[in-house]
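pls read this stuff:
=====
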Amino acid sequence: MDKITNRILNNIGDDGLIEKLLALSKSDLNSLLLKLFHEQADTITPVDLLKSFRQNRFTVPSEIDSIAFHLLEAELLSLAQEMEIKPVLLSPAAPFASCSAFGCVDQNNVVSALRGTEILSDPTNMLAIIIAEQIRNLKLPVHYCTTARVLRAQPFPKRKGYSSHFGLFCIVSCGTCEKELFMKQLIYYKKLFVNKQLSIVLRKRSGYPDNFFENMTELVKNEFPDVPVSFDLEHEDNNYYKGINFNIHMEKDGNKIEIVDGGFVDWIQKMTGNKKLRCLISGVGLDRLL
């Protein structure tokens, strides 16, 4: 991106343009960009629009069966509601930098937009933001869930089964006891995948004492006594999750597919300044599950 930006600035003849634009207030910068896009939109013809659709990987429709997809959404949300995990219907837009502000995601992997927004790329971040905003009025622990079609900007393989947009189901739990939060989500996935051939991978992450990982491991083994559990004790410095990261895999037709990814994060602590709050997130890839 720096190489491309430098080329553009050289062509314009103003190497300091980025700094000048960043010196504007957010509202003034947004107004300027709105004007630019308005002028640009006036030059687009219907023929241009069709050509753009053909070339833009972000707008290609999914090959997934839409009825099967929505039925799966209803199944996951209904089970969650039965277990007092509150379903939330999210906006397709998120606040600008809703992922990168926590220091774990590059903004270039998100489709940024105007008016202080970006296209939703991770519903766990949005549920955490909603919980943080409502925290004073909530009785903890609280468990929210959602399904969403998300869009991500990083390159994906150009082959069947890969798309820039895909479906996710996620749970975000907040409270003061890690064990309580972890048990809630484990029981949900145990009910969801009953009679399925599963395996679990547990990865140790930094941010907690060593016995935390051991205690969480015991919870997993007790809740899934017949499921093979393996461990990855390397890359503890990965700072996305704290303490533990768990993956659930499903075996089908001889293939092992990762369908659940989750772990503890410090997002709500950072937003509220309350170090006693704990947050556990997890997500299911709906396209993969189908």
Notes: DSSP finds ten helices and ten strands in the chain. The chain has a mean pLDDT of 93.
